[in-house]
């Protein structure tokens, strides 16, 4: 499949994959929820959807060509490390997907460790519940920074268009999956998290205990956390007893779209720049 055909298929492929996983996860949450929600689903969903709308509009305005288009260009130019290595095409595609996932893991780690970046990322963690829509709730400035980092990685790596499309589809799908408020049999979860980040694994990352928030940074592949020593198997308070979110943003007013967008400017969370409760 040539790059021109792939670019034409990008929008429908991403939309179908996104909507399929979103609907499947939403139904799964209704049929087999892992935890009882503390806030009404409708109120959270409306405001979280508003964040998605703002994010999508800004990305389309500021990055009209998109990541897959950049992948098509670097592929045509033979640009980047993978282009210079001259590896077989499918090896190049697989390598690019794995390396891009590692870049996103490192970016996520940095957004927790750099105070200015944390002020943007903490909006994601301020959700007092975790469900499929939490996987879409990222501050617009974080999304723009993430897009810039992703484009730089594609350029340096020489990731071909097919690899970028596969990575984008996987990243969106796994973010929806691992934020899902769904119940998995413990045996299945134990084996599944060897190859993908599961909801129980990622839920630990949304604990309000800081050491747990600073663990399990992966969205797609679980190997990076094991490799770099940031893996935590279970929350200390258990999945039913753990508290989700941030101590400084428990007030329901922070669920409103306008409040979420202005949250990085808030001075209400000076201690630890809005990190979870000190341990």
TrEMBL record:
User: Where exactly are the transmembrane stretches of this chain?
Assistant: 12-31, 52-73, 85-106, 151-171
A Pfam family annotated for this chain is FA_hydroxylase
Localization per record: Membrane
Q: Which domain of life is it from?
A: Bacteria
Which EC numbers characterise this protein's activity in its record? 1.-.-.-
What is the enzyme's main class? oxidoreductase
Q: Which residues form the Fatty acid hydroxylase domain?
A: 96-230
Any one GO MF annotation of this record? oxidoreductase activity
Does the keyword Glycosyltransferase feature in the UniProt annotation?
no
Read off the InterPro entries from this record. Fatty_acid_hydroxylase (IPR006694), Sterol_Desaturase_Related (IPR050307)
Q: Which UniProt keywords apply?
A: Membrane, Oxidoreductase, Transmembrane, Transmembrane helix
Name it: Sterol desaturase family protein
Q: Which species is this UniProt entry from? A: Halomonas salifodinae
Lineage runs: Bacteria, Pseudomonadati, Pseudomonadota, Gammaproteobacteria, Oceanospirillales
């Amino acid at each position: 499949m040539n790059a021109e055909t792939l670019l034409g298929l990008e929008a429908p492929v991403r939309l179908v994959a996104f909507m399929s996983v979103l609907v499947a996860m939403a139904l799964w949450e209704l049929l087999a929820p892992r935890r009882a929600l503390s806030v009404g689903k409708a109120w959270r969903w409306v405001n979280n959807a508003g964040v998605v709308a703002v994010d999508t509009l800004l990305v389309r305005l500021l990055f009209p060509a998109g990541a897959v288009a950049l992948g098509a260009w670097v592929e045509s130019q033979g640009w980047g490390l993978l282009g210079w290595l001259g590896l077989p095409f499918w090896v190049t595609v697989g390598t690019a997907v794995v390396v891009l996932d590692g870049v996103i893991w490192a970016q996520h780690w940095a957004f927790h460790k750099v105070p200015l970046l944390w002020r943007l990322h903490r909006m994601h963690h301020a959700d007092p519940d975790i469900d499929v829509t939490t996987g879409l709730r990222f501050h617009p400035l974080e999304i723009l920074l993430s897009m810039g980092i992703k484009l730089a990685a594609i350029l340096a790596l020489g990731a071909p268009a097919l690899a970028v499309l596969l990575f984008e589809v996987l990243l969106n799908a796994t973010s929806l999956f691992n934020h899902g408020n769904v119940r998995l049999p413990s045996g299945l979860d134990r084996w599944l998290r060897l190859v993908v980040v599961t909801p129980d694994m990622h839920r630990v990352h949304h604990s309000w205990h800081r050491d747990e928030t600073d663990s399990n940074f992966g969205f797609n592949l679980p190997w990076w956390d094991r490799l770099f020593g940031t893996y935590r198997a279970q929350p200390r308070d258990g999945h039913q007893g753990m508290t989700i979110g941030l101590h400084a943003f428990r007030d329901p007013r922070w669920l409103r779209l306008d409040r979420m967008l202005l949250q990085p400017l808030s001075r209400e969370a000076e201690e630890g720049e809005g990190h979870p409760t000190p341990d």
